[in-house]
Amino acid sequence: MDKVIYLDNAATTRMLPEAVEGMIPYFAEYYGNASSIYRLGQESRKAVSRAREIIAESIHADASEIYFTGSGSEADNWALIEAARSYASKGKHIITSAIEHHAVLHTCRHLEKMGFEITYVDVDEEGILKLEDLRKAVRPDTILISVMFANNEIGTLQPIKEIAAIAKENDILFHTDAVQAYGHVPVYVDELSIDMLSASSHKLKGPKGVGFLYIRKGVNIRAFIHGGGQERNRRAGTENVPGIVGFGIAASQAAACMDQEAGYVASLRDYLIERIEKEIPYCRLNGHRTRRLPGNINFSFSFIEGESLLIMLDQKGICASSGSACTSGALDPSHVLLATGLPHETAHGSLRLTLSGENTREELDYVVDSIKEIVGRLRQMSPLYEDFAKGKGKAYV
Ligand SMILES: *Cc1c(COP(=O)(O)O)cnc(C)c1O
């Protein structure tokens, strides 16, 4: 593989070498089943406990409140489906936002088919949840509010404390999909009054295929996967010991380096945003300028197709995304960008760049130069741009 400039860290991350190293003994040396009595099994059990402690501490929770899952998507499905089932006798109304990840949105569609009613609260132009609309959506039969901590496409950080307070005042459970936020910005369940929280290892330099659901003590949601007694009878399935070990190492490193890493990455982000805005006409920064993830950049460029831009960037060794990895390939424009009020035409011409601490300013200079050249070339081929240059039509952004 030629050297690439990797700017798609919201899709997944390169694993931390220490996490890879730390996992290796748990494949061939300490391969015991964590449920077994003999010492070989206990080595696995101890490793899982250690990772659980590290992760619990990182969100100010108790280890007994952390349940390992097979992914962030599984954690979201579990939280929503089982909260709905377990609290259905109290009511069948759930509130979420219009810009959730599909792991939440498609689960909500599923719940609608099961007879639950969902309200999708709107966001403003910068992608921030409208708190007044949330307050108005609350009903006596509302059993759950689920709003993501940070958006995966435009990086917007939601007012989680305020949202959780509204849930608490009304005696409603509050779940947050913190998959993009966890390991990148502080996420503390007690300070923020979060009842349930989903996270995923591969978004913070850990291995793929492991996540967790935090369930506050006293929140009585049932098991989602049935079988053996693993995870205190709440999530069956032989533990993914190497995965959990790698997750623990990545989480510990992320917590230790968070301030420094976020500061560096945010400075790269702001540099890139400044250069694009200065040098490329008819573009729009999507999301909130400051209340956003340190590594997230999302731009719309008028008169171009995001897919063409991505393919041409790939030819230059640059990995980027036009929205979320799950929507690219589909022709529908991003539901997140549409929710912020972008017209279809502009939503189609969007580019998401998500940075990590491994990126450098030199790389970004090459990236901006490449985007500039490609956007220019694509516009030269666009009939809409030709009309616009002649004074007909408008630039949308
Ligand atoms: C990636 C992502 C998920 C899904 O996590 P997986 O571990 O890949 O299943 C859920 N929500 C958000 C916001 C994400 O970015």
List keywords for this structure.
single chain; 397 residues; alpha/beta; Aspartate Aminotransferase, domain 1; Aspartate Aminotransferase, domain 2; 2 domains; 7-stranded mixed sheet; 3-stranded antiparallel sheet; 42% helix; binds pyridoxal-5'-phosphate
General description of the model:
The chain is α/β, with parallel strands linked by helices. The protein has 2 domains: 5-11 and 258-389, Aspartate Aminotransferase, domain 1, CATH 3.90.1150; 17-254, 3-Layer(aba) Sandwich (Aspartate Aminotransferase, domain 2), CATH 3.40.640. The chain is 42% helix and 13% strand. The protein contains 14 helices and 12 strands. The chain has helices at 17-23, 25-28, 39-58, 72-86, 102-113, 131-137, 160-169, 230-233, 241-279, 306-315, 335-339, 344-348, 361-380, 383-389, and strands spanning 5-6, 66-69, 93-97, 117-121, 142-146, 173-177, 196-200, 211-215, 283-285, 296-301, 318-319, 350-354. The strands form 3 sheets. Strands 2-8-7-6-5-3-4 form a 7-stranded mixed beta sheet, sandwiched between helices. Strands 9-10-12 form a 3-stranded antiparallel beta sheet. Helix 7 (160-169) links the parallel strand 5 and strand 6 (173-177). Helix 1 runs antiparallel to helix 9 (241-279), helix 4 (72-86) runs parallel beside helix 5 (102-113) and helix 9 (241-279) packs across helix 13. The longest helix is centred in the middle third of the chain and has 39 residues, at 241-279. The two termini are 37 Å apart. 46% of the residues are buried. Pyridoxal-5'-phosphate binds at residues 71-73, 76, 101, 103, 148, 152, 177, 179-180, 200, 202-203, 211.
